[in-house]
Task: structure prediction
Amino acid sequence: MSNTVVKCEKVEKTYQKDSVPVYALRGVDFEVNAGDFVSLSGPSGSGKSTLLNVIGGLDRPDSGEVTVDGVALSGLSESELTELRLRKMGFVFQAYNLIPVLSAQENVEFILQLQGVPQAERRERAEAALESLGLADMSHRQPGELSGGQQQRVAIARSIVSNPVLLLADEPTANLDSGTTEDLLGLLRRLNEQENMTIVTATHDPIVMSYTKRQVHLRDGAIERDALAA
Amino acid sequence: MSFKLVWQLSIRNILRHRRRNLMLFAAIAVAVTGVSSMNTLIRGMQYGMMDTAVENMTGHIKIHAPGYRDDPNIQKGFALDEDFEPPVPAEDMLGWAARIRIPAVIMSERETRGVQIVGVDPSAEAISFIGDVPIEGDGLESTDDGRILIGRELAIQLETEVGRRIVVITQGIDGRNREKGYRIVGTYDAEGTALEKMYVFTGLSSLQGLLDSEDVTEVSIRLVDEPKRLTFKQLLVGFFSELAVMDWLELEPMAAAMFIFADSVIYIWFALMMSALTFGLINTLITSVMERVKELGMVRALGMPKRMVLIQVVVESTIIMAVGVVIGLIGGYLVFLTIEDGINLGAFAEGMEMAGIASVLVPVLRWDDFILVAWLSLLLGILASLYPAWRAVKVQPLEAMRR
Result:
């Protein structure tokens, strides 16, 4: 059985901006294996976020095929893509994106509730996830009562609580100070090394890249460099 | 799908904008209070019209000879057996009365008026207005009573009074005029002057004697439950196959039209009040959705199905409407309690009388009206949420999160 979690074949994506085509991805071939910790980097407009969104099923390529955990995304309807994201992926966004009306624990439980996990199990898993990220004392706080770093930790707890096949993080440290960034990256590294979590993160931050095992650099919608970390 | 999650998110989102939603609750509550209070008044007016029509010598069902209504005279009468009883179960009937009602001319020493002389059995007339009106002087005592009871207004017009004599001329069974002098036993004070000017009463047997006939011209039946009139009308049609059996709606077409119109007014009033409110609710929900576009995009990205987003907005709207409706119905009930004894419309008595409405408007609370308002409001709440919910569902995760 293949250990390929993500496979992109000749993925192309073009946007129209003021009637002018912008080539976000130009025939990208790219694979992520189980246990990888990959950074997608590149200058603004290089296509790193687009590639991340295409892998996450949030955007559809114009051509080519994306396969996640053996499932070809092109054949899926919108609702099937939603279900796939729910069951197989975890997301961490730049702006934390917690649900403001739910407490930290409820935010973590949110994914499990969508998955239909029974309440007792849900609570247990959410508490464990928060505890593993050092947030046990914050579980009943609303997002507005947490610092940026704490909110992003809650977002990570939410993304990993359902044991996804793939964790996608879009500029996860962009709004954090350097100390908190280091803490958070250490956390992602621990998840990758200890839990064998497959992580793909889009970033332009060299610190983030330094924590990943594999660094993929994009320019003008194409992969310019794909290298294992030294 | 987790309904608990939907419920939790809906409640929290409502609580998130407390002030805005409190205003909305208040607006809904005021509208529902207005609608439900107005319904009790419309029902009161409607039932008042019905009672007036029914008590105005009509009853719920009346039997007379064919052609009587076109040319009311004793020749269009019919005979009743001495031991006649209507074939309606006693527990369904408030009472019944046999009468002669025919046109007559009444003369005092000074004035002459056209009236209807009504021969009654006073003991049976509890079913009509004459059974409980205030009387100056005495009432009739029996079916053999040969005195006459006239309306107060008629007495004024005839410039006569209790104890004086008047003369009545009417047509007997042979078509010839009959004339009789009566002593005024009393004057009655009816609700409005139209009845007082129209009807004079004497004993049924006494009038039959004057007309040389054993017949009556009508049998009037008052039921316990008005809605059962159709059932018993059918029964009576079979029983009096040679006679005309009509219910009060047929006998009093204007009152019937007003009665039916009142039902429509309730719906029109509801539609007007609640439609205006619905637009407010739609506006608030759209605002609420547009404020949360990024959040909705995020939850969709995380895996929340579209139908759950849709249901969440619908549930939010329904909760807002339900809370407003409950407060509004309580308000409507409290308003009803404060006006339960009736609103005196004496100042408009003449106009009210013309419309067949009593001068004291007594509101009528029908729980089915309250339930109808509740259900229709909730239905409107759901309908109002559909467009905002559609807007929420159309949110594309990626576009929303880029905002």
Remarks:
- Chain A touches chain B through 26 residues (CB under 8 Å).
